[in-house]
Write a structure and sequence with these properties.
The chain has 130 residues and is mostly helical. The chain has a domain at 6-71. The chain has helices at residues 6-10, 18-29, 37-56, 99-124. Residues 77-102 are annotated as: Disordered.
């Protein structure tokens, strides 16, 4: 399998023709002129991709060495629950009844809150002089 895909490099759908490849090449090459050496390297990559589409890939449907991506980018966007966005599944309970434990926690929280209120009130209350 090739590690470079000329269609991906040019940003065009798999099987696009020479005319679409030329337009994509021009669109991607234009901003590279200002980048200097890095731009030349990327331009070489674009030229290779254009040459592959023009010379090496005569019949895209018969090419087996080239990995393919969908023509329609919306194919990869989840449209709802499914393979890319499955619905959550509830887990089975692993503990017993939590009612008595929850009641104990609620009582402890109420006592702690009451203690906080009493201490707050005591701090704001002035002790009367004898």
């Amino acid at each position: 399998m090739a590690d470079r895909n000329p269609y991906v490099i040019l940003g065009i759908p798999f099987g696009a023709g020479r005319e679409e490849a030329n337009l994509a090449f021009a669109r991607r090459a234009r901003p590279l002129r200002r980048l200097g050496a890095e731009g030349r390297d990327r331009m070489t990559e674009l030229t290779w991709a254009l040459n592959q589409i023009d010379e090496a890939i005569k019949e895209p449907d018969t090419v087996l060495w080239l990995y393919r991506i969908p023509h329609d980018p919306a194919v990869l966007a989840p449209s709802g629950p499914g393979e890319f966005a499955p619905k959550p599944r509830p887990m089975a309970r692993r503990s017993g009844d939590s009612g008595p434990g929850l009641d104990a926690v609620q009582r402890a929280a109420a006592r702690e809150h009451l203690r906080h209120l009493v201490l707050d009130r005591a701090g704001r209350t002035a002790i009367p002089a004898p």
